[in-house]
Design brief:
Blueprint lengths: L1 H21 L1 H14 L6 H13 L3 H29 L3 H13 L5 H8 L2 H13 L2 E3 L6 H12 L6 H15 L8 H9 L5 H17 L2 E5 L7 E5 L4 H11 L3 H25 L4 H27 L3 H14 L8 H11 L3 H11 L8 H13 L7 H7 L3 H16 L3 H5 L11 E3 L3 H17 L3 H8 L3 H4 L17 H8 L16 H22 L1 H16 L8 H12 L8 H4 L1
Helix pairs in contact: 3-27, 4-26, 4-27, 8-12, 10-11, 11-12, 12-13, 13-14, 14-15, 15-16, 16-17, 17-18, 18-20, 26-27, 27-28
């Protein structure tokens, strides 16, 4: 019974929605017919006469107050709409209308229709759009204590948003903790430390975890099973505590590297022990997975420290060894760190070899991969490229390949060229990025701008060709050329990831919503009426009375514009304009 009643209500609702959607003209004429039939009982003519009499008794001060109040209200609405649009990228009135009024006036539930009628291709595109809107860990993220905090000390600005730091805290809990942490006092403390919001509380917890190893972790083990000779043995120190101190307490890269080397000793020992016990149960397997993540993170950050300190060849060797030792851990995107270090060494053949492995159709793309491939192809022709010569003789095969590579990169992330061409100011990259978004463009340009400048003519070629991409994809939100359509979620996610003092790059450029233009026009129109009424009260009063008579009188069909102005002239006693002698003759 309940299902039948629900089905009947849904069918009734759909019929009403259909009637409002397609038969609104019939409803409109029915309402007009009812008003005409009930004009005598409702005393419509008498009410119109009363309204007309009331309007005729109003003074010009009333119209000044009315138009002034309307202008003020519409101005306030305009200011609020503009602020909301600048902050969230959409109109507040439009959003409320779509969210609350559209379902009542015949909106269709897109989720249900997509779930019931979607094909395999649609589901694939939906999965792709979800993956493109996913927030990723920035493989080139800076050190909080040695770089982000120093920026705050100098400028007084916070380079990281709360949303970004919260995502980092979730990553740390995922990679550096496991279910058996409560069995080890130091790991139990660090499990709470990763959830702390206060940086000083996290640092204090890390120091406490290290002190526990010195005080409470001494165990006695016999040297020989049947012997009375005993040995005092220290349990391994907490590697994750050293990681936290290196990331947040160290004020220089050298201090961070020293702490990461201590973390490497502790983490390597834990990894070797858990590797031997990983097959003894699910608990040991989870602990081994955690120790693997810790070890990979430490080695990667040590390589980044070497890169920051100028030991680029050493950093490249460490990254290569790490990728060989753990080839399946692609979540850290170590190959992007390797590409940047190889570009610094100008080892372009090695860069091409890395791209040949990772620039694959089955792997997720990134701005680093696309723009590095474009840089290598531009390097072959950029030193001799001239727009004038190319327009006369046409593009050669190599130049065409370079231009196509640039178009491919710009289609993937259209925000990067403005930073590479220094048309937009750079800020410190966030700890997380959104692929194809402004955050990824900042992270790429922050580290790779120097590599583009080093290649002679590369930026000139980019400047001459990058805008041609948009002619191939006139509707990027609906259909792409080489990639999926550009996701519409990038602006919202980038506003959460990037600090408030940065102006987020938006693609494609949004036009001003209708309601902002409408309220601006309404505010201007009512302000003009208020000014005219204040300056010419008698003329505007007569004009308002004439208009009210036209719309309220039963004989409004016999009036025209000429009668309005004749009445205005009669009541103001305006003499007729003198006619010229030529006109009289």
């Amino acid at each position: 019974m309940a299902e039948a009643a629900t089905g009947f209500l849904e069918q009734l609702k759909s019929c009403i929605v259909w009637s409002w959607t397609y038969l609104w003209t019939v409803w409109f004429f029915i309402v007009l017919f009812l008003v005409y039939v009930l004009r005598v009982p409702l005393k419509i003519n008498d009410n119109l006469s009363t309204v007309s009499m009331f309007l005729n008794t109003l003074t010009p001060k009333f119209y000044v107050a009315l138009t002034g109040t309307s202008s003020l209200i519409s101005g306030l609405i305009l200011i609020f709409e503009w602020w909301y649009f600048r902050k969230y990228g959409t109109s507040f009135i439009e959003q409320v209308s779509v969210s609350h009024l559209r379902p009542l006036l015949g909106g269709v539930d897109n989720n249900s229709s997509n779930n019931s009628n979607s094909s395999n291709g649609d589901s694939d595109s939906n999965r792709q759009s979800v993956s493109e809107c996913k927030v990723w860990r920035n493989p080139l993220n800076l050190f909080r204590g040695a770089e982000y905090n120093r920026y705050t000390w100098v400028t007084g600005r916070e380079p990281l948003t709360y949303y970004d730091m919260n995502l980092s805290a979730q990553d740390h809990q995922t990679f550096f903790t496991c279910d058996s942490d409560h069995l080890r006092p130091a790991d139990a403390i660090m499990q709470k430390a990763w959830r702390e919001r206060n940086p000083q509380a996290r640092i204090s917890a890390a120091h406490e975890a290290l002190e526990i190893n010195e005080i409470r972790s001494r165990v006695e083990v016999p040297l020989i099973a049947s012997s009375t000779i005993w040995e005092i043995k220290l349990l391994p120190k907490c590697a994750t505590a050293y990681i936290l101190l290196a990331e947040e307490e160290a004020t220089t890269i050298a201090e961070a590297e020293k702490l990461f080397k201590q973390a490497l000793k502790a983490g390597d020992g834990c990894y070797r022990r858990s590797q031997q016990l990983q097959h003894h149960g699910s608990q040991y397997e989870a602990q081994h997975r955690r120790d693997t993540n810790v070890l990979v993170y430490i080695k990667r950050r040590l390589a980044m420290c070497a890169r920051r300190l100028g030991r680029t060849r050493e950093a490249v060797k460490m990254m290569r060894d790490l990728m060989k030792e753990f080839p399946l851990l692609s979540m850290f995107n170590i190959h992007e760190n390797l590409l940047e270090a190889l570009l610094e060494l100008q080892a372009y053949a090695d860069v091409q070899a890395v791209l040949a492995k990772y620039d694959d159709i089955s792997l997720p793309k990134s701005a680093t991969i696309c723009y590095t491939a474009a840089l290598l192809k531009a390097r072959a022709v950029s030193d001799k490229f001239s727009p004038e010569a190319a327009s006369r003789r046409g593009l050669s095969t190599a130049e065409m390949n370079a231009v196509e590579a640039i178009h491919r990169a710009v289609e993937f992330n259209p925000h990067v060229p403005k930073y590479l061409l220094e048309m937009k100011s750079l800020i410190l990259p966030p700890e997380h990025i959104l692929k194809r978004g402004d955050s990824e463009a900042i992270a790429y340009a922050f580290f790779h701008l120097a590599h583009w400048k080093r290649v002679e003519g590369a930026l000139n070629l980019l400047h001459c060709t990058w805008e041609g991409t948009f002619r191939m994809i006139p509707y990027p939100l609906e259909k792409g050329h080489l990639f999926y359509p550009y996701p519409i979620c990038t602006e919202t996610a980038d506003r959460e990831l990037l600090p408030s003092f940065h102006e987020v790059s938006v693609y494609p450029k949004k036009e001003l919503p209708f309601f902002i233009l409408f309220t601006a026009g309404l505010c201007s129109f009512t302000a003009m009426l208020a000014l005219l009424t204040h300056q010419f009260p008698e003329l505007m009063g007569v004009f308002a009375k004439a208009m009210s008579d036209i719309f309220c009188s039963a004989e409004f069909r016999d009036w025209n514009c000429k009668s309005i102005f004749m009445r205005v002239e009669d009541e103001l006693e305006i003499p007729p304009a003198p006619q010229s002698q030529h006109f009289q003759n």
